[in-house]
Write a structure and sequence with these properties.
alpha/beta; Dihydrodipicolinate Reductase, domain 2; eight-stranded mixed beta sheet; six-stranded parallel beta sheet; 12 helices; 34% helix; 25% strand
Length: 363
């Protein structure tokens, strides 16, 4: 018989609704027993809306009183690691929103804390869990598509000046970076989950139009360990918003275009001449499921039921965070950066800003 997991949400802003919906959709597998927010009135309103019995102003009190199995961290990025560390110290599992940390240093702190805890940390990268992404990774692993050759990841979104009026947005200290950290991360994380280890990054980043400390656009050329070459664009300046991934394999091009979540209908497969069987295999087991928090939560609970570490592990997350650090390092130093190059003695290890953005002292 499956165990009913006790869950708590920390931070009752907009993204908390996606977590509450995911919990409700999983039925008797998990119950939402408490919420936390520094704004108690907001927490109380959220609790009434979702029928949550416990309302707290801090995580410490919640952990003592409720003894949850899992905590969903939905707060602004700067508090993600301190909250995750507190939950780990209580042997509680953590599902943390992106970006999970502000630096590689913080990720390594979490990895060290997890080693001495019965709890495990998973990062919310829900686009990994849509049926089409799972099918694509399976077809790659089975060799159906042949060798990977070319790829691209475009996150072209639009955020006006008012969006950045929220105090923690657009700051290295509180958000950790611009669209590379907070927006494009979902698309290129999915790309990394398909293509495997990256090898080298050459990048540019710029502050074109928004009154922020971070970049508002970045671009990267990436070489993967298997030889695949890819481009990655992350923007909050693009009025026609889109999220796109394209993979060119020997036997087919596989593409998806969506905005904040996809279904199978958003994907297309174009076989290379003589390889029509690829399209036939792709069409098997078609689904209308949206890539969502519910998909990831189901996988998270499945792993716990099997006694396994829930996806996305801190090791997986570190690969994506190292990619981000290398992108900033390349953009700010004007050099190519290789995987494994950013260690504790590198300025981009402790902060994504590293040596400082080129525009920091510009008039």
């Amino acid at each position: 018989m499956e165990q009913v997991r006790r869950a708590a949400i920390v931070g009752t802003g907009a993204i908390a609704t996606s977590h509450a919906q995911a919990v409700r959709a999983e039925g008797d597998r998990i119950e939402l027993v408490a919420v936390v927010d520094v704004e108690e009135a907001r927490a109380a309103t959220f609790a009434r809306e979702w029928g949550v019995p416990g309302v707290y102003s801090g995580l410490t009190a919640l952990l003592d009183a409720e003894e949850p199995d899992v905590v969903f961290v939905c707060t602004p990025p700067r508090s993600h690691v301190p909250l995750a560390l507190e939950a780990l110290a209580a042997d509680v599992h953590v599902l943390v929103e992106k970006p999970p940390a502000l630096s590689l240093s913080e990720i390594d702190t979490l990895i060290a804390a997890e080693r001495t805890s019965a709890g495990r940390v998973a990062t919310v990268f829900q686009h990994r869990f849509g049926p089409a992404a799972i099918r694509l990774r399976r077809m790659v692993a089975d060799g159906v598509l042949g060798r990977s050759l070319v790829a691209k990841s475009d996150t072209l979104w639009y955020r006006d000046g008012a969006y950045f009026d929220v105090p923690w947005r657009g700051s290295w200290d509180s958000e950790g970076g611009g669209p590379t950290m907070g927006h494009g991360i979902h698309q290129f994380d999915l790309m990394l989950s398909v293509l495997g280890p990256w090898q080298e990054i050459r990048a540019v980043a710029a502050r074109q139009a928004r009154a922020v400390a971070t970049e508002d656009v970045s671009m990267a050329l990436v070489t993967f360990a298997d030889g695949t070459v890819a481009s990655v664009v992350n923007s909050v300046l693009s009025p026609r918003e889109t999220s796109q991934l394209r993979f060119d394999f020997e036997r087919a091009t596989v593409e998806v275009e969506h905005l904040y979540g996809y279904t199978d209908a958003d994907w297309t497969v174009t076989p290379a001449p003589g390889h029509d069987e690829v399209a036939r295999l792709w069409r098997e087991d078609q689904s209308t499921t949206v890539s969502s928090h519910r998909c990831q939560l189901a996988a998270f609970l499945d792993a716990l039921d099997r006694g396994e570490t829930p996806p996305v592990t801190l090791a997986d997350t570190r690969t994506t965070m190292e990619f981000i650090a290398a992108l900033y390092a390349s953009a700010f130093t004007g050099t190519a950066v290789k995987a494994g190059q950013i260690g504790p003695d590198n300025p981009f290890y402790a902060t994504m800003e590293g040596i400082g953005a080129p525009w920091a002292n510009a008039r």
